[in-house]
Amino acid sequence: MSSLLASRAARRLRPRCRPSAATGFCASGRRHGGPFDPVENPPILRPKRLETLFSAPAPIGSPRHHLLGLRQTLSLASITSSSSSRDPNKEEEEEKPWNRRPVSKSSWINLYLPEYVRPYALLARLDKPIGTWLLAWPCFWSITMAAQPGEFPDFKMLALFGCGAVLLRGAGCTVNDLLDRDIDEKVERTKSRPFASGLLNPSQGVAFLGVQLLLGLGILLQLNNYSRILGASSLLLVFSYPLMKRWTFWPQAYLGLTFNWGALLGWAAIKGSLDPAIVLPLYCSGVSWTLVYDTIYAHQDKEDDLKAGVKSTALRFGDLTKNWITGFGIACISSLSISGFNAELAWPYYLFLTGAAGQLGWQILTVDLSDRADCNRKFVSNKWFGAFVFSGILFGRLAS
Description:
The chain is built from 21 helices and no strands. It is mainly α. The termini are far apart.
């Protein structure tokens, strides 16, 4: 019965004559729209009758009730068809964890590394080499200072410590992100890190940390026994540093103790022992330098740190930050002068040290501590400070 009613309704909606496919005119001469004019003079659909047919209430079980049910079924089928037309490959691509927060297209990680490797490269901060430079420079300083007068430093040791800086910095970042994943979610600058954003889970991070430490052990075993013990002891600082921001306003000082351990280790790798008159002032200079650049760096996150309950020297110093870091800058240059004097470096060292002092003074005087971008620029510029000091030690040793 419902099919009979549907066929009658369809006949009422047809035009009264069928136009020719070639001309668009019917036998009566009336034009209804041919294949080249499909929208002109459409057939009259009698909207009032259709409105009555489809919107008027119909008794349950009546033919019109069945027709309304058929119309609803067709509508649901069209909705289902449109929703299922989404590209399954695109959905699968969106669900991949490394695509939740894609890295910048300009990053070499995104351009050259396989997709499954990218989260680990981001975890090790391979796209941000400034941390590796800041860790490597104190190592290079002490290795070069330990060279014989008039000779170049040991290039094999420079290469080993360079690779070690990459691995140890990556391991430190892995430990830091594992312990701070609950804090990183609350900080604008860090919420896209692999653990905070869901790119990696803690189990994957621990496994990756094991690989990093194993490779680092391979480098450490190539040093003398004294250096092996000294290098292994630095892991205590590496693993405990991330907790300092919860307990003290001086986590930057603790980072200085950690990041500048290479000032001791580099000398020991060449000499087999430590000369306190040279390496202790060198180590203190590195700690003071870290307090300058990492306090500037911490000013990027001071608002978020307050909300998350995290401590830093940026919050401790407040409006007096420039006074504090000026003092640390003076301590840094003074300690470098003492170390170079005790190591009997020649006059080129002090020439380059003057340039390094100028670079550090420029940072402190011009940094806008309320501008995150400017704080980051000044922080990154510290690779040039390290290069100035290294060049001074190199030429000072060659000329001595």
